[in-house]
């Protein structure tokens, strides 16, 4: 595969030329290209395509590393312009037009070797963002977040954006607020969440929590004639990508022909949002942590935390509880469940002793661990984190597959 690696202001891309009729990248290919450990590594994939508009020299689309499509990217547009000039499809010393999913964009050289792209006028109408559950267009909107009212502005430049004014962008609670806003029902297509610190009337400092990357890892355990097992299923907004990724994995599996089981390490919406879609497609059972089995069976959204945080998770049918000490057998290997409280009081680890492989969920990432949500709610939980890390240390894993990010061995 031929590709180009580019960046705009540090926002990096893999560029693919599809003008010769090559198909768009699948979610699996996007994930492989985007992986910074085992692939090329990038924030997004840009595909150069024939334009639909007669005024444009070329069209382009933007793909997130999870395979989902993006409507627009300013840094990506500048990279596309530079790529087309180097390719000879656009002039280096005159203006031209490119076409994105959001429309056509005039491009002009900036006189310093770069390009200026006209991204068009901002769109504030709720239906165009899209923003749901509001009574019309306003300068500010409110979202209930853990009992507090979060004020934000909303705008689209091809992608939905929530903009929150803060006193100090560096100190903003991006890791907590960003996922909560993205998972809110107010943003049916999720959103890029910006934390804006006004430095002067003509200058701001901005941190952005981008959409399209936070779904949990979809862990496929195959090689068993009884069928494959999937551990965790990502956000519901990525359900189509989850179904496609699974379909491709099953095609490549010479032994497993179907999905026999879904297992959840915990029931945050970024780990179980795809359960309903997989269950509907494959008629498979779902095992959930024992501490949340009854709550999930009754579908109490308040106790599942979905209602308070505004998260979306389509209802699914939990079929059996998975408790610490229980085992999952797959392809001749035994995965033992261990308690991993901290990030979530009911979270589990899965450890396979023969290969010393650990599925750590959000109890351990390569550079830390997941947000300790009970602490945010005022409940002491760092002692539980310490216990979970102690359990992991005692298992002496050789390979860790975290809830988010690439597997690691160090």
How would you characterize the overall build of this protein?
- The strands form four sheets. Strands 1, 2, 3, 4, 5, 6, 7 and 8 form an eight-stranded mixed β-sheet that branches.
- The protein is an alpha/beta fold and 410 residues long.
- Strand 14 (219-221) and strand 15 (228-231) form a beta hairpin.
- The protein contains ten helices and 23 strands.
- The protein is globular.
- Helix 4 (239-252) crosses helix 6 (275-282).
Features:
single chain, 410 residues, five-stranded mixed β-sheet, 21% helix, globular
How are the elements arranged and paired?
Elements: E1 4-8, E2 11-17, H1 27-34, E3 44-49, E4 58-64, E5 69-70, H2 74-87, E6 96-100, E7 103-109, E8 115-117, E9 141-145, E10 148-156, E11 160-165, H3 174-183, E12 192-200, E13 203-209, E14 219-221, E15 228-231, H4 239-252, E16 259-263, H5 269-272, H6 275-282, E17 286-289, H7 293-298, H8 306-309, E18 320-322, E19 327-330, E20 333-339, E21 348-352, E22 357-361, H9 373-376, H10 382-395, E23 399-402
Parallel strand pairs: 2-3, 4-6, 11-12, 15-16, 16-17, 17-18, 22-23
Antiparallel strand pairs: 1-2, 3-4, 4-5, 6-7, 7-8, 9-10, 10-11, 12-13, 14-15, 19-20, 20-21, 21-22
């Amino acid at each position: 595969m031929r590709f180009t690696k580019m960046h705009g202001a540090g926002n990096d891309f893999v560029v693919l030329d599809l003008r010769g009729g090559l198909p768009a990248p699948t979610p699996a290919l996007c994930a492989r290209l985007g992986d910074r450990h085992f692939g090329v590594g990038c924030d997004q994939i840009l595909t150069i395509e024939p334009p639909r508009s007669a005024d444009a020299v070329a069209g382009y689309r933007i793909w997130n590393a999870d395979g989902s499509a993006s409507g627009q990217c300013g840094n990506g547009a500048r990279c596309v312009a530079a790529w087309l000039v180097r390719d000879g499809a656009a002039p280096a010393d005159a203006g031209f037009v490119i076409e994105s999913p959001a429309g056509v964009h005039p491009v002009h050289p900036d006189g310093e070797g770069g390009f200026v792209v006209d991204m068009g006028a901002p769109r504030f109408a709720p239906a165009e963002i899209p923003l749901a559950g509001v009574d019309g267009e306003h300068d500010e909107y409110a979202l209930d977040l853990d009992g507090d009212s979060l004020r934000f502005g909303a705008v689209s430049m091809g992608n939905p954006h929530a903009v929150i004014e803060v006193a100090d962008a560096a100190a903003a609670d991006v890791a907590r607020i960003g996922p909560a806003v993205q998972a809110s029902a107010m943003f049916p297509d999720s959103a890029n969440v910006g934390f804006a610190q006004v430095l002067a009337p003509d200058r701001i400092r901005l941190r952005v929590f981008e959409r399209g990357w936070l779904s949990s890892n979809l862990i496929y355990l195959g090689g068993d004639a009884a069928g494959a097992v999937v551990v965790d299923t990502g956000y519901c907004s990525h359900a189509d990508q989850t179904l496609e990724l699974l379909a491709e994995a099953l095609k490549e599996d010479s032994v497993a022909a179907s999905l026999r089981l879904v297992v959840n390490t915990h029931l945050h919406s970024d780990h179980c949002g795809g359960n309903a879609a997989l269950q509907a497609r494959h008629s498979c059972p779902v095992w959930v942590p024992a501490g949340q089995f009854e709550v999930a069976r009754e579908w109490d959204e308040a106790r599942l935390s979905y209602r308070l945080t505004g998260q979306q998770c389509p209802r699914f049918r939990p079929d059996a509880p998975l408790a610490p000490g229980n085992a999952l057998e797959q392809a001749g290997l035994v995965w033992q469940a261990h308690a991993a409280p901290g990030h979530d009081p009911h979270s589990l680890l899965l450890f396979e002793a023969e290969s010393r492989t650990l599925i750590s969920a959000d109890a351990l990432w390569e550079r830390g661990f997941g947000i300790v949500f009970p602490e945010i709610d005022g409940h002491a939980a760092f002692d539980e984190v310490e216990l979970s890390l102690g359990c992991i240390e005692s298992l002496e894993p050789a390979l860790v597959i975290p809830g988010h990010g690439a597997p690691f061995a160090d």
